[in-house]
Amino acid sequence: LKSSLECFPCFLQQALRAADRFAPSAAVKERIVMSVLKQLQAFDRNRTSPEMGAFINRTAREAVGVADLYAAEKRHSNRRVTAMLPKLQEIIVASPNPFETAVKAAIAGNLIDFTAPGGDVTTPLETLFEKAMAKPLMQLSGDAVSRLQTAAKSARNILYLMDNAGEIAADRLLIEMLPRGRVTAVVRGGPIANDALKEDALSVGIDEVAEIIDSGLALPGTLLHQCSDSFRSRFDEADVVISKGQGNFETLDFIPGKLFFLFVTKCVTVANYIGCDMGELIVSDRLK
Amino acid sequence: LKSSLECFPCFLQQALRAADRFAPSAAVKERIVMSVLKQLQAFDRNRTSPEMGAFINRTAREAVGVADLYAAEKRHSNRRVTAMLPKLQEIIVASPNPFETAVKAAIAGNLIDFTAPGGDVTTPLETLFEKAMAKPLMQLSGDAVSRLQTAAKSARNILYLMDNAGEIAADRLLIEMLPRGRVTAVVRGGPIANDALKEDALSVGIDEVAEIIDSGLALPGTLLHQCSDSFRSRFDEADVVISKGQGNFETLDFIPGKLFFLFVTKCVTVANYIGCDMGELIVSDRLK
Fold first, then answer.
1. Which helix (DSSP H) or strand (DSSP E) does residue A146 occupy?
2. Could you give the angle at the alpha carbon of B239 between the alpha carbons of B89 and B141, nearest 5°?
3. Model-level pTM?
4. Which of A3, A127, A181, B283 falls 20 to 30 Å from B63 in CA-CA distance?
5. Min CA distance, A37 vs chain B (Å)?
6. What is the pLDDT of residues A129-149, one digit of tens each?
7. Interface residue A6 vs chain B (CB under 8 A)
8. Which residues on chain B are in Cβ contact (under 8 Å) with A37?
């Protein structure tokens, strides 16, 4: 999904939010925002929003001189969602369709976001989950959830593209409902926003339910041509790819077949593209 | 009131809104937005937001090749509010404090805005007025309304700085409660957003209750050093200046004495500066 002029105010908002949060002085804040402004002038809009997102994050990181700006938030989110797992597990087991409810819990986790315009950083995580679990799933192409369930049953290799820290604890619940021993969980190749890294995946015990690899890319999305060769072969070999988050959707939405997108719509441009509101819990595939 | 980095996303939003509305092609839209983006790089933030607002409007106007983009809206607003005057007049007369109610009606008119971030272009004008009339006035410095009433009684020259078309019809109700023959109404010196020009003032009959002059400046505010000499002497001679709208506040808020600001807060930066919410009906003076 190409970015557009409509994304520009939001890019500046992201820069301002990061600068307000992390810049130690007005001069550093100025440097971050003006640097993003300059980059916008040259930005090729055939490229995707997550690429600009990565630039904004890198700019803030370098200006502030901290390698991983959201390290503390990530640890905090991992702990908080881990503590919710027993309750979520109970809800899943008690529900009429446990697989669908696990999908919903995994998407609810996607609400944890410290940089996207639709990311809610003020509501307690417990409330975020509670509200999300009460919402209906929006399946864009008929019964995508049951198609995912069927495809996963016969798949030899399932690739699970993870998104944010915290969220990955809820992802674990869904992975546990997929065929044992066939899931590979993919984290980012380096610090970017509050996206999950290998240490996050380990801290919520993803290694107990899946192999963990990284994409080779420090970007809030999965741009295949920039990912590592080893990740790309895993992607090619996979029978089913579960893609979490809007950033992965924006960078992979043109890839036909085998992909299932699970995410919350976090900006008006993507919501309009899909034809839904902000904050919807989306499940979409291309196996129509 | 100086602008700030926080204004930048909003400037881009204004450019996008104008471009979406008026650009006949994607190429023209692109030209408008990229031109504003470039200007932001060079923008001296000791300057006020209305100066950038004027640049955005001028850029859109020149790219589209139309001298007055909002001409139709302005005529429409003038007609619609004129049709509401008998009802508003009734409310004023029946109220416990007619002068204060007239002030409120004049501020309610300030909600008519086609370019500001807080401008509401979808709600019918009648509903906008109804809601605003039901809200309390926010007097920033004690009883500013009664100080205005007292100051006006003994003033020889009252300058009334008008803001938007449509709004000026409601302004007429307030002018009618000021000493007859002592009020000069000031419109903009050229087309800018939906701000009132001389033709608008005439169309709602301001000439029947006040002398009409212009500021010599096509800007959504009153930057004294850029206004015409003749306006500046009128400003200096005035005993009381009633300043309508946020743009006039942003450009005149540093002037001590004799000014009474009547406006709706339309952006977060100004609301924070004042210490109130967006959409409040503000009355403020410096005669503390």
1. helix A144-154
2. 70
3. 0.90
4. A3
5. 7
6. 999 999 999 998 789 999 999
7. yes
8. 8, 37, 40-41
